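Long-time lurker, first post. I've been practising inverse folding by hand and with some scripts of my own, and I keep getting stuck on stretches where the structure tokens seem ambiguous. Below is the full token string for one chain I'm working on. Before anyone asks, I'm not after the true native sequence, just a reasonable design that respects the backbone. If someone could post their per-position residues I'd love to compare against what I wrote down in my notebook.
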């Protein structure tokens, strides 16, 4: 039976840290579905369609990665895609408490879905989308933090829209 994992997040934008987690998840699972959340509460810098496009371009060389947008409960999305595992990334101790709560919440909603926590490699451990967004507001260097395909998309945007 095919082992499918769902990696949900806002991906605003997808970073090298996210990319690293996806690449490592593919070593563990047959298929990884990257689920891009609408996430109205976080007020994303990029639209859902832009984030889906960036994530799709960044992962285009992976055969077993699919990108979807969503605006429902993560466990419901997992069921819709026959995913039995949720992937969550941990960069630092500060992530742990929040991610643990989300894992317990998801388990309380559906105890057949497991949560697996993956850490990015040390070289990507400090990268977060919020750090990237902060740099983009000042038109600062981000090429070392983003997949090249994402950097190209952002570089082609009007800098005024990144404020």
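-- Answer (accepted) --
I ran through it position by position. Result:
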């Amino acid at each position: 039976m095919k082992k499918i994992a769902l990696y949900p997040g806002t991906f605003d934008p997808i970073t090298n840290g996210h990319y690293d987690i996806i690449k490592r998840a593919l070593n563990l699972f047959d298929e990884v579905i990257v689920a891009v959340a609408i996430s109205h509460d976080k007020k994303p810098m990029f639209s859902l369609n832009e984030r889906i496009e960036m994530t799709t371009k960044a992962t285009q060389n992976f055969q077993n990665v699919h990108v979807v947008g969503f605006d429902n409960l993560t466990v419901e999305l997992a069921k819709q895609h026959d995913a039995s595992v949720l992937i969550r990334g941990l960069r630092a101790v500060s992530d742990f408490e929040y991610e643990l709560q989300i894992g317990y919440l998801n388990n309380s909603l559906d105890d057949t879905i497991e949560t697996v926590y993956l850490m990015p490699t040390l070289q990507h451990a400090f990268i977060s989308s919020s750090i990237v967004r902060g740099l983009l507001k000042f038109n600062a260097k981000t090429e070392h933090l983003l997949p090249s395909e994402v950097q190209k998309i952002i570089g082609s945007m009007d800098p005024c829209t990144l404020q």
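A couple of notes from the structure itself: The mean pLDDT is 94. The chain is about 40% helix and 20% strand. Happy to go over any region you disagree with.
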